[in-house]
Amino acid sequence: MLISFATGTLLTAALFGLIPEAIESAGGEPHTVMPFVLGGILFFFFLEKIIIWRNCADEDCDVHAAAGPIILIGDAFHNFIDGIVIAASFLTSFTVGISVSLAIIAHEVPQETGDFGILLHGGFSKKKAFFLNTLSSVTTIPAAIVSYFVLAEISFIVPYALAISAASFLYIALSDLTPELHKKWGLKHTIQQLILILLGVTVMILTMSVMGHNH
Which of 96, 97, 101, 198 is deepest in the core (most CB within 10 A)? Predict the structure, then answer.
């Protein structure tokens, strides 16, 4: 259920929040922003290939034994990027900052739950898995704080940071979350997933709309 909801929030945050704001920040020139969105998607594809961002689904694959450590390293890097995303979005506007933060929270819950399961499968105790998973998540806060001040000084990179952030949202939603949804294909599951995706979309649009009026 959370994966369906997160899919809706991520797609909406990217397509209704980050990309439009990036284009507006770049002086209304979409052709200067969209190459960074495309490049970002390709970057995250290669990154996932190299470090196995999530986990190896095939029991016989070469990296299966290292799934636990790889997950922790990949998650720490991913959460570091999340911190930069949050900082860049708040520097753009309070509205975008709130909506992007909500989208990140929405996709982090199912992701971290899945990572916890992978660590348990890799032989970690529940206590150690929880501790290490939490430790890999703390990179978000220092990344957000440092980025807030650094990005403020070099504000010309903000639209491109937003574009790459949008690429990460699109990539996670379409490459990681959607395949999980397709594992359940019955009519009942399909309708439930569609309703929850639309709920995620609606929550994000309402959030951006309400916060926009207050901005």
Answer: 96
> Interior CA angle at 92 toward 97 and 176, to 5°?
50
How far apart, in whole angstroms, are the C-alpha atoms of residue 45 and residue 164? 13
Instruction: Give the 3-state secondary structure of residue 65.
Output: helix
Alpha helices in 13-93 (DSSP H): 19-25, 30-51, 67-92
Alpha carbon of 89 to those of 40, 57, 59, 116, 187: distances in Å? 17, 33, 39, 28, 38
For 129, the token pair is 């898995």
CA dist 144 to 39, 152, 210, Å?
23, 12, 24
User: pLDDT for 14-61, tens place per residue?
Assistant: 898 889 988 988 888 899 999 999 998 998 888 777 765 455 555 555
- Specify the amino acid at residue 209: S
Q: At CA 150, angle to CA 138 and CA 52, rounded to 5?
A: 45
Domain ranges of the chain: 2-55+63-214
> Is this model's pTM higher than 0.85 or not?
no
Task: Return d(Cα 10, Cα 53) in angstroms, integer.
Answer: 18
